[in-house]
Amino acid sequence: MSIAISPEVAERLRGFEAPERLGFGSVMAPVMFRAVYQDGCWSGGELIPYGPLQIDPAAKVLHYAQTCFEGMKAYRRVDGSIGLFRPEKNARRMAYSARRLCMPEIPEGMFLEAVRCVTAYCAYLIPAASGESLYLRPLLIGTQPDLSVSASNIYEFYVIASPSEAYHSGNMRVWIERDDTRAALGGTGDAKVGGNYAASLQSVAQLKARGYDQSLWLSPSDRKQIEELSGMNFFAVIDGQLHTPKLSGSILEGVTRDSLIELAGTLGYRVHEREMDIDDLLALIGSGTCSEAFACGTAAIISPISVIGDAGHSVSLPQVPGPVSTALRSALLDIQEGRAEDPFGWMQQVEPASP
Amino acid sequence: MSIAISPEVAERLRGFEAPERLGFGSVMAPVMFRAVYQDGCWSGGELIPYGPLQIDPAAKVLHYAQTCFEGMKAYRRVDGSIGLFRPEKNARRMAYSARRLCMPEIPEGMFLEAVRCVTAYCAYLIPAASGESLYLRPLLIGTQPDLSVSASNIYEFYVIASPSEAYHSGNMRVWIERDDTRAALGGTGDAKVGGNYAASLQSVAQLKARGYDQSLWLSPSDRKQIEELSGMNFFAVIDGQLHTPKLSGSILEGVTRDSLIELAGTLGYRVHEREMDIDDLLALIGSGTCSEAFACGTAAIISPISVIGDAGHSVSLPQVPGPVSTALRSALLDIQEGRAEDPFGWMQQVEPASP
After folding, report:
1. β-bridge pairing A31-38 and A154-164
2. Cβ of B64 and A223 within 8 Å?
3. Is A101 close to B65, i.e. CB distance below 8 A?
4. Which of B192, B195, B197, B66 is nearest to A195 (CA)?
5. pLDDT tens-digit profile of B96-128?
6. What's the CA angle centered on A225, arms A223 and A231, to 5 degrees?
7. Domains of chain B: which residue ranges?
8. B133: closest CA among B355, B351, B337, B340?
9. Using one digit for the tens of pLDDT, what is the confidence trace for B160-181?
10. CATH assignment of A7-165, given 3.20.20.70, 3.10.450.120, 2.60.40.290, 3.30.470.10?
């Protein structure tokens, strides 16, 4: 790596021991990457010990949610090597998210160096069981202390990391959200920004009380078309073919979604990106034409959906996990974890670094 | 006040000198109120020196924008006393905003004590010129360090303060935003949460490049009805009567809006809260039937609108500031600054405290 580390960072790395139970996103790696944007340029890209940020109480991020982030994973592969999955896709999406909130883009080179550096030094923390990984979280926040509603002139970029289990294990019960929306047309739904997630919390709290796991969001203008789950895209298997909502402008373009579309073709499945009317889908599940549904995302990979709940009634999917979801999940994980060839060139190897 | 202060806080208060040029929201008072919510209850309400917060890099607020805030003012009145304007309205709105983002409500008693305490100890900082004030910014953030998308289980509540000039001086040029939206129906537009403001930044950046000051937001579903400006409500004077968009579910219910509706009645103006089609309004301005338009809010009080810009053409208001805007602004400021009786009981006196 081109980034040298301080004795303090080396000591933190050597002294860290992960607990036995990892969960998802709750055990944080002992170091993080940090760079600062001020006076129109980036500086200070370095690894520092993980610890509290000093943020002014008037910082833009705290009041006006000027924040965007990414989620990505580094895998320990079966040959022992470490692989990052499509990091350039995350770099480009983060640039898009940053632009949407009037934040400076993170140069792709710096973004990639940052995630490679954190991955290299935290390689010894990456768990080896299938579905486990080092979850990486690049984060860009506006920190200028000023209460006027305008873009910050100071930004901080971090990459924090968390050795993690899969985000969702088992089947998911999803609830059709017919009242709240997570994002407006002309809003920020196609960017990975904090406000989308804040808007989703109320719906999730309500459905959890009903015994469900995730909200299924509908189109903001008419609430008829399926959009996505919070942080995950939606797929259904209809007559043996894959169907997923086409990008509407208020759906986040998932890296896993994109990868599955490409991968499915090579496995012999036709994929349809189209408007998906929720009531049509419920009818297709009722008639048995739709045999499977699943959510996909970086954190969750593929999570089969067992039940779709709606006010008044709910429908159950017949096969959970079904054969198509299982085949896609295995094919993707086989590439990510090095059990299969990588015909798409998705994996980028990272050499572990020792402190 | 029931809140005792530490020697350090007293020293900060005694040592602080405000610069001559205040601006809005950029000079911060030397102390702030802080309370913490953990294990289901609030504790630690106290004044502390103003300074950086220690926030974990994985805190929910930084990633998922779990933040809401308020804006309110304390005025130095002409008799030298200090008055807070309708603080209970802000307390209740903040409780609403908190619930929308699954955050704990701040008990109204604690909220009011916090703003009164900050006001009392910062009383000596409140500028005396008309339109100037101590701008108070209550802020509630979720700080649990955990990357899963769910509500925080730890919260911090702050009241920071800024001796300030009026937010907008002079006339405003507003631009009709026909593409972006700040909030979805079923979203968070009627709560004062960070994500609404983040979503608005792109529009404001674009219109500033065209020589405009603020976006005029339209209804998210059809973009036909006027909603609000970012952080301000909209009024027009049509045939000598006041018209303002009715609360749509995606408009923030402004304290100044509410106050003006009440005050206008006593000044002999009829007020109509209704759907306001933007193209109808442009035609009424063109024909001279609409004689004035203005924005109102806690920060801005009343800002007359001089121009409404649209792709292709723009319309100018004939009287800027017009007689109705001027009369309303004076009547409201007269109450706030103690030049007139307060028949509504809006002002709450605060006794200055000395460190």
Report:
1. antiparallel
2. no
3. no
4. B195
5. 999 999 999 999 999 999 999 999 999 999 999
6. 90
7. 7-165, 172-321
8. B337
9. 999 999 876 679 999 999 999 8
10. 3.30.470.10
Whole-number Å distance between alpha carbons of B292 and B332: 18
Touching check for B212 and chain A: CB below 8 Å?
no
**Residues B240/B269, Cβ–Cβ less than 8 Å:** yes
Nearest CA to A65 among A184, A199, A253, A251? A199
A26, A63, A202: residue with CB nearest B139: A63
Q: Class of the B172-321 domain?
A: alpha beta
What CATH number was assigned to the domain covering residues A172-336? 3.20.10.10
> What is the structure's pLDDT at B169?
64
pLDDT of residue A312: 80
Task: Choose, out of B66, B101, B149, the residue to mutate when testing the contact with A (most A CBs < 10 Å).
Answer: B149
Q: What is the 3-state secondary structure (H, E, C) of A49-113?
A: ECCCEEECCCEHHHHHCCEEECCEEEEECCCCCEEEECHHHHHHHHHHHHHHCCCCCCCHHHHHH
**Cβ of residue B128 closer than 8 Å to a chain A Cβ:** no
| Contacts A223 to B, Cβ<8 Å | 186
Q: Name A80's Cβ contacts closer than 8 Å, sequence gap at least 6.
A: none
Rounded to the nearest 10°, the torsion over CA A293, A299, A301, A305 is -20
Confidence (pLDDT) at A168: 67
